[in-house]
Specification:
single chain; alpha/beta; Dihydrodipicolinate Reductase, domain 2; binds 6-O-phosphono-beta-D-glucopyranose
């Protein structure tokens, strides 16, 4: 780890910094992983002294960490790292002040937890005020653009001031323990990787369901929708980790090159195939965990009238390469769904011939890779039921790899903890390259265009359900069903 690091968090007063970034940094520090000489400089518009910033940080930690996670010794150490600077992100003179506060011989990391519309001007001002040198790193939160053209604009602008090797584009799903575990599962286990293709696998399901709604972000979300908010980034990254070819090594460039190849092999969903391949939905009022919740159009901040924005997407996608020819990938994500669950399900093919009678249980193997909750991997198998009464009866059993129990830790690290460490260490393997961003936008743009041109209507679904019935039909017409176990 670099010895002297200054981590500048732009937008430190925002929701992301409060809920994720500051708690992650505190946890890393408590675990002794931040090194001795790392300083955290929060930047936001409001006027505040360092002491006031420290007090508000303590409140944020109290609100966002579990009971007993804050201890006096760790807090004192963390507090000594904290500094604050008030800044108007668009004012040149503020960046001159920032430059004056910067010290030589330190690695500077600028973390932009700001609206993406500010990325360009912040990078420009940082550069114009000589705050950037060849080693300075910049971290960008999603979204990078709203489509291929705008993502190119953002990437071009940032590229004027930072080299690609110093640009860290976050997709926080890549920081999740189970997503990295996909690499171990696939490439460290012969028994898995030898069965990982269209000869053995019938289909793949990727689900990212949330019970939350728009969480006060209606204005932003309504201009984006679930495809841009979740599919373009998180679901496609998951798909890459599941389906990419083995990289030659674990070097960032090798992994990222394989992901780009995979994204480019995704069959476009366009005007010709959109009808059988992509469902869009929007939630109406319903019940979540026994409590009534309003529909999307009644959420706080909504405008009157109608909105055509989707809060749910179900897709059937194909990867046109040798390994995956003919294997459907069913993707599904939505707000206000029945449960918070993110998982990948690998459904294996049936045996070519069965020696068991029709009355005996017939079940194909299924590998369930769960990102949240209860991180772990389960392999569903069929085995003999223990009983002397029957000659040979079958039952479904589960091989269970529970990461939480296996790690013997009190908790599994949050994605942002891992991602901070990688930025500080200068390793890009869990960050998204420009080529990946652009390839995934290209695929999403085609789908968005098809929805628009074909006037594909929104299907309503009640909050607390598993999405519109059309999403069930999307998979059931292929004699398959969504895994909800
Ligand atoms: C964010 C989306 O990127 O991911 C949110 O903008 C979504 O809308 C969130 O709620 C989901 O993240 P996680 O880690 O809770 O699955």
């Amino acid at each position: 780890m670099a010895k002297n690091v200054d981590l500048f968090i732009f937008g430190v007063a925002g929701d992301l910094a409060n809920r994720k970034l500051i708690p992650a940094l505190y946890r890393l520090d408590s675990a002794g992983l931040l090194g001795d000489n790392l300083r955290i400089i929060g930047l936001a518009r409001g006027e505040m002294s360092d002491e006031e910033f420290s007090r508000s940080t303590r409140e944020i930690l109290n609100q966002n960490l579990g009971e007993g996670e804050i201890c006096d010794i760790a807090w004192t150490c963390f507090q000594n790292r904290l500094y604050y600077m008030s800044i108007n992100f668009e004012k040149a003179e503020n960046y001159a002040d920032l430059n004056c506060r910067m010290e030589s011989n330190r690695l500077n990391i600028f973390y932009l937890a700001t609206p993406p519309s500010l990325f360009g001007s912040i990078c420009h001002q940082l550069h114009a005020s000589a705050c950037v040198d060849g080693s300075t790193r910049i971290v960008l939160e999603k979204p990078i653009g709203q489509d291929l053209a705008s993502s190119r604009d953002v990437n071009d602008t940032v590229a004027q001031y930072f080299e690609e090797r110093n640009i860290y584009r976050i997709d926080h799903y890549l920081g999740k323990e189970t997503v990295q575990n996909l690499l171990a599962l696939r490439f460290a286990n012969r028994v898995i990787n030898s069965q990982w293709d269209n000869t053995c696998i019938d289909h793949v399901q990727i689900t990212a369901a949330e019970t939350v709604g728009i969480e006060g972000r209606w204005g932003y979300y309504d201009s984006v929708g679930q495809l841009r908010d979740m599919v373009q980034n998180h679901l496609l990254q998951l798909l890459c980790m599941v389906a990419m070819e083995p990289p030659n090594t674990l070097e960032a460039d090798e992994i990222r090159a394989e992901k780009v190849k995979l994204l480019r092999a995704l069959r476009p969903i366009n005007g010709e195939n959109v009808e059988g391949s992509a469902i869009r939905g929007q939630y109406s009022a319903g019940w979540i965990s026994g409590k009534p919740v309003v529909g999307y159009m009644e959420e706080k901040g909504s405008r009157t009238g109608d909105s055509e924005t989707e809060t749910f997407v179900a897709l059937k996608a194909f990867v046109d390469n040798w390994r995956w020819a003919g294997v459907p990938f069913y993707l599904r994500t939505g707000k206000r769904m029945n449960a918070k669950v993110t998982q990948v399900v690998i459904a294996y093919k049936d045996n070519p011939h069965t020696i068991f009678s029709d009355s005996q249980l017939q079940a194909s193997n299924r590998l369930v890779i769960r990102l949240q909750p209860n991180e772990g991997i389960q392999l569903e198998m069929v085995s003999k039921k223990q009983s002397l009464k029957e000659r040979l009866n079958l039952e479904k059993r589960v091989l269970n790899l529970d990461f939480f129990e296996a790690s013997r830790l009190s908790r599994i690290a949050d994605a942002y903890e891992r991602l901070f460490l990688e930025v500080i260490n200068g390793d890009q393997w869990l960050f998204v390259s420009r080529d990946e961003i652009e390839a995934s936008w290209q695929w999403c743009d085609s789908l968005l265009r098809a929805w628009r041109e074909k006037n594909i209507d929104l299907k309503r679904y009640g909050a607390g359900s598993w999405g519109p019935s059309k999403a069930e039909m999307l998979i059931e017409k292929d004699q398959r069903s969504w895994y909800e176990g």
